[in-house]
Write a structure and sequence with these properties.
single chain; about 40% strand; 2 helices; mainly beta
Length: about 170
């Protein structure tokens, strides 16, 4: 299976108005199984020459509702930015497959879509008080945007403007 590493660097699928994007060392396909996804992530960050696995954090989330959690890896260096790149890996035996990158300030796994594929809502800050909620699916090799809407996420927005953000992500 071919896996694209351009998931976090392709600006054609970014929410409207998003200026920040992440660049990977290799703009090519990747089709090998990965024994250590944390080290692989550190080795493949182009704009982070002194990458350290100590700065990496992981979350295990079952995004496709199959009972097996996917591995989401991110760097503390990017937390607090407009969006944090999460590299997502799916277990394949004792190893992993890279299935794409999701840039998110906040995310929430949604119920499966009518097509049976995963759906994830992502909030990305665009400017103070304004952001984008987009819905993504994964086709096994990359994340593909299904929908995108501009929302107000606080920082000066009115209660009515903040309503949509809370509908998707809750109050916390």
């Amino acid at each position: 299976m071919l896996v694209l590493l351009a998931g976090c660097s392709d600006t054609t699928r970014r929410p409207a108005g998003l200026e920040y994007y992440h660049t990977w060392k290799y703009q090519t396909v990747y089709n090998e199984l990965i024994a250590d996804p944390i080290q692989w992530t550190a080795d493949n960050l182009w704009d982070w020459p002194n990458a350290s696995t100590g700065d990496m954090r992981t979350e295990r989330i079952d995004m496709d509702h199959d009972g097996i959690a996917e591995l989401f890896i991110y760097s503390l260096d990017y937390v607090g930015q407009a969006c944090t790149p999460y590299l997502v890996f799916k277990r394949s035996g004792k190893q992993y497959r890279y299935v794409g990158c999701l840039d998110a300030g906040r995310y929430k796994v949604l119920p499966l879509g009518a097509d049976g594929r995963s759906r994830i809502a992502v909030y990305t800050r665009l400017e103070p008080g304004v952001g984008s909620i987009s819905v993504w699916t994964n086709n096994g090799k990359e994340f593909v945007m299904l929908a995108d809407e501009r929302v107000f996420g606080g920082d000066g927005g009115t209660e009515e403007q903040y309503r949509r953000f809370r509908e998707v992500f809750g109050d916390d």
